Amino acid sequence: MTGHAQDHHHQDGHRDPPNFPIQEGRAIWGFLLAFLAYWLSHRFVYVENDPGALARASARGERVEWSSFDKFYKQAPTLFLQPSNHEELIGILREAAASNQTVKVVGSGHSWTPIGLTDGVMLNLDKFNKVLSIDASAKTVTVQAGIRIRDLSAALAAHDPPLALRNTGVLDRQSLAGALATGTHGTGIRYKIMSADVVALELVTAGGNVLRGSRRDPDPAMRDMFEAAVLHLGALGVLTEVSMEVVEAFSVIKRNRLLPLNTVLSTLPALAAGVDHLLVWFIPYTGRAQLMESLRIPPTKVPPTHDWGDSRKHCQNFGSTSGDEASAAQ
What we know:
InterPro entries: FAD-bd_PCMH (IPR016166), FAD-bd_PCMH-like_sf (IPR036318), FAD-bd_PCMH_sub1 (IPR016167), FAD-bd_PCMH_sub2 (IPR016169), FAD_lactone_oxidase-like (IPR010031), Oxid_FAD_bind_N (IPR006094), Oxy_OxRdtase_FAD_BS (IPR006093). GO terms for molecular function: FAD binding; L-gulono-1,4-lactone dehydrogenase activity; oxidoreductase activity, acting on the CH-OH group of donors, oxygen as acceptor. This protein is of the alpha+beta class. The protein has 2 domains: 27-44 and 250-327, no CATH class; 45-249, Uridine Diphospho-n-acetylenolpyruvylglucosamine Reductase, domain 3 (2-Layer Sandwich), CATH 3.30.465. It is 24% helix and 24% strand.
Protein backbone atom coordinates (compact mmCIF):
# COMPACT_ATOMS: atom_id res chain seq x y z
CA MET A 1 0.00 0.00 0.00
CA THR A 2 0.94 3.65 -0.26
CA GLY A 3 4.23 4.65 1.20
CA HIS A 4 4.99 1.39 2.85
CA ALA A 5 8.67 0.78 2.73
CA GLN A 6 8.27 -2.27 4.88
CA ASP A 7 10.40 -5.36 4.62
CA HIS A 8 8.96 -8.84 4.22
CA HIS A 9 9.85 -12.33 3.00
CA HIS A 10 10.17 -12.33 -0.80
CA GLN A 11 12.51 -14.42 -2.89
CA ASP A 12 14.14 -13.09 -6.06
CA GLY A 13 12.21 -14.75 -8.85
CA HIS A 14 15.05 -14.29 -11.34
CA ARG A 15 17.70 -16.34 -9.62
CA ASP A 16 18.39 -20.01 -9.11
CA PRO A 17 18.79 -20.84 -5.42
CA PRO A 18 22.40 -21.61 -4.48
CA ASN A 19 23.47 -24.96 -3.13
CA PHE A 20 24.36 -24.94 0.56
CA PRO A 21 27.10 -27.19 1.90
CA ILE A 22 25.62 -29.62 4.39
CA GLN A 23 27.98 -29.86 7.33
CA GLU A 24 27.26 -32.87 9.53
CA GLY A 25 23.62 -32.75 8.50
CA ARG A 26 23.05 -29.48 10.34
CA ALA A 27 22.10 -27.35 7.34
CA ILE A 28 18.88 -29.28 6.89
CA TRP A 29 17.82 -28.16 10.36
CA GLY A 30 18.36 -24.56 9.38
CA PHE A 31 16.07 -24.90 6.41
CA LEU A 32 13.51 -26.78 8.49
CA LEU A 33 13.53 -23.95 11.02
CA ALA A 34 13.17 -21.38 8.25
CA PHE A 35 10.28 -23.34 6.74
CA LEU A 36 8.63 -23.63 10.15
CA ALA A 37 8.86 -19.85 10.65
CA TYR A 38 7.41 -19.32 7.16
CA TRP A 39 4.54 -21.74 7.87
CA LEU A 40 3.79 -20.21 11.26
CA SER A 41 3.67 -16.73 9.76
CA HIS A 42 1.10 -17.93 7.22
CA ARG A 43 -0.81 -19.78 9.91
CA PHE A 44 -1.02 -17.07 12.54
CA VAL A 45 -0.01 -13.63 11.34
CA TYR A 46 -3.39 -12.62 9.95
CA VAL A 47 -5.59 -14.18 12.64
CA GLU A 48 -7.41 -11.25 14.21
CA ASN A 49 -10.25 -10.59 16.60
CA ASP A 50 -13.52 -9.07 15.44
CA PRO A 51 -13.76 -6.10 17.82
CA GLY A 52 -17.30 -5.26 16.76
CA ALA A 53 -18.52 -8.79 17.46
CA LEU A 54 -16.74 -8.82 20.83
CA ALA A 55 -18.33 -5.50 21.80
CA ARG A 56 -21.83 -6.66 20.81
CA ALA A 57 -21.44 -9.92 22.72
CA SER A 58 -20.13 -8.08 25.78
CA ALA A 59 -23.11 -5.69 25.64
CA ARG A 60 -25.40 -8.74 25.80
CA GLY A 61 -23.66 -9.81 29.00
CA GLU A 62 -21.76 -12.66 27.36
CA ARG A 63 -18.23 -13.60 28.38
CA VAL A 64 -15.81 -12.68 25.61
CA GLU A 65 -12.14 -13.47 25.09
CA TRP A 66 -9.68 -11.25 23.29
CA SER A 67 -6.39 -12.67 21.98
CA SER A 68 -3.22 -11.47 20.34
CA PHE A 69 -2.75 -12.19 16.64
CA ASP A 70 -0.76 -15.36 17.34
CA LYS A 71 -3.22 -16.55 20.02
CA PHE A 72 -0.31 -16.63 22.48
CA TYR A 73 -1.89 -14.07 24.81
CA LYS A 74 -5.57 -14.35 25.72
CA GLN A 75 -7.74 -12.49 28.19
CA ALA A 76 -11.40 -12.39 29.20
CA PRO A 77 -12.12 -8.79 30.28
CA THR A 78 -15.01 -7.75 32.47
CA LEU A 79 -16.23 -5.58 29.59
CA PHE A 80 -15.20 -5.15 25.97
CA LEU A 81 -16.39 -1.78 24.68
CA GLN A 82 -16.20 0.06 21.37
CA PRO A 83 -17.09 3.75 21.83
CA SER A 84 -18.29 5.74 18.83
CA ASN A 85 -17.41 9.25 19.99
CA HIS A 86 -15.66 11.30 22.65
CA GLU A 87 -18.72 11.50 24.88
CA GLU A 88 -19.03 7.72 25.06
CA LEU A 89 -15.30 7.32 25.61
CA ILE A 90 -15.16 9.89 28.41
CA GLY A 91 -18.16 8.28 30.10
CA ILE A 92 -16.51 4.85 29.98
CA LEU A 93 -13.24 6.17 31.42
CA ARG A 94 -14.91 8.07 34.25
CA GLU A 95 -17.09 5.11 35.19
CA ALA A 96 -14.07 2.79 35.17
CA ALA A 97 -12.11 5.23 37.35
CA ALA A 98 -15.01 5.48 39.80
CA SER A 99 -15.15 1.68 40.13
CA ASN A 100 -11.33 1.36 40.27
CA GLN A 101 -11.17 -0.74 37.09
CA THR A 102 -8.16 -0.91 34.79
CA VAL A 103 -8.76 0.18 31.20
CA LYS A 104 -6.68 -1.03 28.26
CA VAL A 105 -7.05 -0.08 24.60
CA VAL A 106 -6.52 -2.87 22.07
CA GLY A 107 -6.29 -2.75 18.29
CA SER A 108 -5.25 -5.54 15.96
CA GLY A 109 -3.27 -7.39 18.65
CA HIS A 110 -0.05 -7.38 16.63
CA SER A 111 2.29 -7.18 19.59
CA TRP A 112 4.70 -9.79 20.91
CA THR A 113 3.91 -8.76 24.49
CA PRO A 114 0.85 -8.92 26.80
CA ILE A 115 0.72 -5.12 26.86
CA GLY A 116 -3.01 -4.97 26.08
CA LEU A 117 -4.23 -7.54 28.60
CA THR A 118 -6.52 -6.67 31.50
CA ASP A 119 -9.33 -8.39 33.36
CA GLY A 120 -10.96 -4.98 33.67
CA VAL A 121 -12.25 -2.97 30.70
CA MET A 122 -10.91 -3.41 27.17
CA LEU A 123 -11.55 -0.63 24.68
CA ASN A 124 -11.32 -0.74 20.91
CA LEU A 125 -11.16 2.44 18.81
CA ASP A 126 -12.06 1.06 15.38
CA LYS A 127 -14.90 3.61 15.21
CA PHE A 128 -12.39 6.43 15.69
CA ASN A 129 -11.24 5.93 12.10
CA LYS A 130 -11.76 9.18 10.21
CA VAL A 131 -9.22 11.16 8.19
CA LEU A 132 -9.84 14.69 9.46
CA SER A 133 -7.57 16.69 7.17
CA ILE A 134 -4.67 16.41 4.74
CA ASP A 135 -2.40 19.41 4.19
CA ALA A 136 -0.27 18.72 1.13
CA SER A 137 1.66 21.99 1.39
CA ALA A 138 2.65 21.36 5.00
CA LYS A 139 2.88 17.62 4.34
CA THR A 140 0.80 16.68 7.37
CA VAL A 141 -2.26 14.52 7.95
CA THR A 142 -4.63 14.63 10.92
CA VAL A 143 -6.65 11.51 11.73
CA GLN A 144 -8.59 9.85 14.49
CA ALA A 145 -6.12 7.52 16.18
CA GLY A 146 -8.12 4.32 15.76
CA ILE A 147 -7.66 4.32 11.99
CA ARG A 148 -5.86 1.27 10.58
CA ILE A 149 -2.59 2.00 8.84
CA ARG A 150 -3.84 0.39 5.62
CA ASP A 151 -6.80 2.82 5.50
CA LEU A 152 -4.63 5.83 6.26
CA SER A 153 -2.19 4.78 3.55
CA ALA A 154 -5.03 4.37 1.06
CA ALA A 155 -6.37 7.85 1.86
CA LEU A 156 -2.92 9.38 1.40
CA ALA A 157 -2.44 7.53 -1.87
CA ALA A 158 -5.77 8.79 -3.20
CA HIS A 159 -4.88 12.39 -2.41
CA ASP A 160 -3.79 14.75 -5.18
CA PRO A 161 -0.82 14.86 -5.07
CA PRO A 162 -0.32 11.33 -3.70
CA LEU A 163 1.30 11.18 -0.28
CA ALA A 164 2.61 8.46 2.01
CA LEU A 165 3.67 7.69 5.55
CA ARG A 166 7.41 8.08 5.88
CA ASN A 167 7.97 4.68 7.48
CA THR A 168 5.91 1.86 8.99
CA GLY A 169 6.29 -1.61 10.38
CA VAL A 170 5.83 -4.87 8.51
CA LEU A 171 2.04 -5.03 8.78
CA ASP A 172 -0.57 -2.49 7.74
CA ARG A 173 -3.32 -4.03 9.87
CA GLN A 174 -2.25 -2.19 13.02
CA SER A 175 -4.24 0.72 14.35
CA LEU A 176 -2.25 3.93 14.22
CA ALA A 177 -2.69 4.43 17.97
CA GLY A 178 -1.35 0.95 18.69
CA ALA A 179 1.58 1.32 16.31
CA LEU A 180 2.61 4.57 17.98
CA ALA A 181 2.04 3.33 21.52
CA THR A 182 4.30 0.32 21.05
CA GLY A 183 7.17 2.01 19.20
CA THR A 184 6.51 0.37 15.83
CA HIS A 185 9.29 0.89 13.32
CA GLY A 186 10.50 -0.22 9.93
CA THR A 187 14.09 -0.83 8.89
CA GLY A 188 16.86 1.40 7.62
CA ILE A 189 19.33 3.67 9.39
CA ARG A 190 17.84 6.75 7.71
CA TYR A 191 14.42 6.37 9.30
CA LYS A 192 13.18 6.66 12.87
CA ILE A 193 10.23 4.97 14.55
CA MET A 194 6.73 6.03 13.51
CA SER A 195 6.26 8.10 16.67
CA ALA A 196 9.02 10.45 15.50
CA ASP A 197 6.70 11.74 12.75
CA VAL A 198 3.93 12.80 15.14
CA VAL A 199 3.61 16.60 15.33
CA ALA A 200 0.46 16.94 17.48
CA LEU A 201 -1.96 14.71 19.37
CA GLU A 202 -5.02 14.52 21.55
CA LEU A 203 -5.11 12.35 24.66
CA VAL A 204 -8.06 11.57 26.95
CA THR A 205 -6.93 10.82 30.50
CA ALA A 206 -8.38 8.27 32.91
CA GLY A 207 -10.41 11.06 34.52
CA GLY A 208 -11.95 12.04 31.19
CA ASN A 209 -9.89 15.18 30.65
CA VAL A 210 -8.99 15.99 27.03
CA LEU A 211 -5.36 17.12 26.59
CA ARG A 212 -3.87 18.49 23.39
CA GLY A 213 -0.16 18.92 22.85
CA SER A 214 2.29 19.39 20.01
CA ARG A 215 5.96 19.18 19.23
CA ARG A 216 6.29 22.98 19.43
CA ASP A 217 3.60 23.65 22.02
CA PRO A 218 4.20 27.00 23.78
CA ASP A 219 3.10 25.42 27.07
CA PRO A 220 6.04 23.42 28.52
CA ALA A 221 3.65 21.10 30.36
CA MET A 222 1.84 20.23 27.13
CA ARG A 223 5.17 19.72 25.36
CA ASP A 224 6.16 17.28 28.09
CA MET A 225 2.81 15.51 27.77
CA PHE A 226 3.31 15.30 24.01
CA GLU A 227 6.80 13.83 24.33
CA ALA A 228 5.52 11.14 26.69
CA ALA A 229 2.33 10.40 24.77
CA VAL A 230 3.90 9.75 21.35
CA LEU A 231 5.11 6.42 22.78
CA HIS A 232 2.85 5.99 25.79
CA LEU A 233 2.60 2.18 26.05
CA GLY A 234 -1.06 2.53 26.97
CA ALA A 235 -0.15 3.95 30.37
CA LEU A 236 -1.15 7.63 30.09
CA GLY A 237 -4.64 7.62 28.63
CA VAL A 238 -6.44 7.03 25.34
CA LEU A 239 -4.92 8.51 22.20
CA THR A 240 -7.83 9.83 20.12
CA GLU A 241 -6.33 12.15 17.49
CA VAL A 242 -2.94 12.37 15.79
CA SER A 243 -1.27 14.74 13.32
CA MET A 244 1.71 13.30 11.48
CA GLU A 245 4.28 14.38 8.95
CA VAL A 246 3.95 12.64 5.59
CA VAL A 247 6.06 12.50 2.44
CA GLU A 248 5.49 12.39 -1.30
CA ALA A 249 4.37 8.98 -2.52
CA PHE A 250 7.17 6.63 -3.53
CA SER A 251 7.86 3.11 -4.70
CA VAL A 252 10.55 0.71 -3.59
CA ILE A 253 12.66 -1.74 -5.52
CA LYS A 254 13.75 -4.80 -3.63
CA ARG A 255 16.66 -7.19 -3.93
CA ASN A 256 17.03 -10.45 -2.02
CA ARG A 257 20.38 -12.21 -1.89
CA LEU A 258 22.27 -14.80 0.14
CA LEU A 259 25.73 -14.00 1.49
CA PRO A 260 28.17 -15.65 3.90
CA LEU A 261 27.30 -14.58 7.43
CA ASN A 262 30.87 -13.44 8.13
CA THR A 263 30.73 -11.16 5.09
CA VAL A 264 27.46 -9.65 6.26
CA LEU A 265 28.73 -9.03 9.79
CA SER A 266 32.02 -7.51 8.65
CA THR A 267 30.39 -5.15 6.13
CA LEU A 268 27.08 -4.44 7.88
CA PRO A 269 27.56 -0.66 8.28
CA ALA A 270 28.33 -0.28 4.58
CA LEU A 271 25.44 -2.56 3.59
CA ALA A 272 23.01 -0.52 5.68
CA ALA A 273 24.33 2.79 4.37
CA GLY A 274 23.98 1.67 0.75
CA VAL A 275 20.20 1.18 0.80
CA ASP A 276 17.13 2.78 2.31
CA HIS A 277 15.97 -0.39 4.06
CA LEU A 278 17.88 -3.51 5.07
CA LEU A 279 16.62 -6.65 6.75
CA VAL A 280 18.98 -9.54 7.55
CA TRP A 281 17.81 -13.08 8.30
CA PHE A 282 20.37 -15.49 9.70
CA ILE A 283 19.80 -19.07 8.53
CA PRO A 284 20.98 -21.38 11.34
CA TYR A 285 23.65 -24.02 10.69
CA THR A 286 24.43 -22.76 7.17
CA GLY A 287 26.84 -19.89 7.78
CA ARG A 288 24.66 -17.84 5.42
CA ALA A 289 22.31 -14.89 5.80
CA GLN A 290 19.55 -13.62 3.57
CA LEU A 291 19.58 -9.90 2.86
CA MET A 292 16.41 -8.04 1.89
CA GLU A 293 17.46 -4.66 0.54
CA SER A 294 15.14 -1.87 -0.63
CA LEU A 295 15.66 1.46 -2.37
CA ARG A 296 13.05 4.18 -2.72
CA ILE A 297 12.26 5.39 -6.24
CA PRO A 298 9.63 7.68 -7.81
CA PRO A 299 6.10 6.20 -7.82
CA THR A 300 5.49 3.27 -10.16
CA LYS A 301 1.91 2.22 -10.88
CA VAL A 302 1.77 -1.57 -10.58
CA PRO A 303 -1.21 -3.60 -9.35
CA PRO A 304 -0.61 -4.93 -5.82
CA THR A 305 -1.20 -8.51 -4.76
CA HIS A 306 -1.85 -10.21 -1.45
CA ASP A 307 0.14 -13.31 -2.46
CA TRP A 308 3.47 -12.83 -0.72
CA GLY A 309 4.10 -16.58 -0.96
CA ASP A 310 4.73 -16.24 -4.71
CA SER A 311 8.37 -15.36 -5.33
CA ARG A 312 7.40 -13.33 -8.39
CA LYS A 313 5.08 -11.03 -6.46
CA HIS A 314 4.99 -8.73 -3.49
CA CYS A 315 2.19 -8.51 -0.95
CA GLN A 316 -0.11 -5.53 -0.70
CA ASN A 317 1.92 -4.18 2.20
CA PHE A 318 4.67 -3.30 -0.27
CA GLY A 319 2.85 -2.91 -3.59
CA SER A 320 3.96 -5.36 -6.27
CA THR A 321 6.77 -6.29 -8.59
CA SER A 322 7.32 -5.03 -12.08
CA GLY A 323 10.09 -6.52 -14.16
CA ASP A 324 13.09 -6.89 -11.86
CA GLU A 325 11.68 -6.52 -8.36
CA ALA A 326 9.94 -3.13 -8.53
CA SER A 327 7.55 -2.63 -5.63
CA ALA A 328 4.95 0.10 -5.94
CA ALA A 329 4.04 2.32 -3.02
CA GLN A 330 0.91 3.51 -4.74
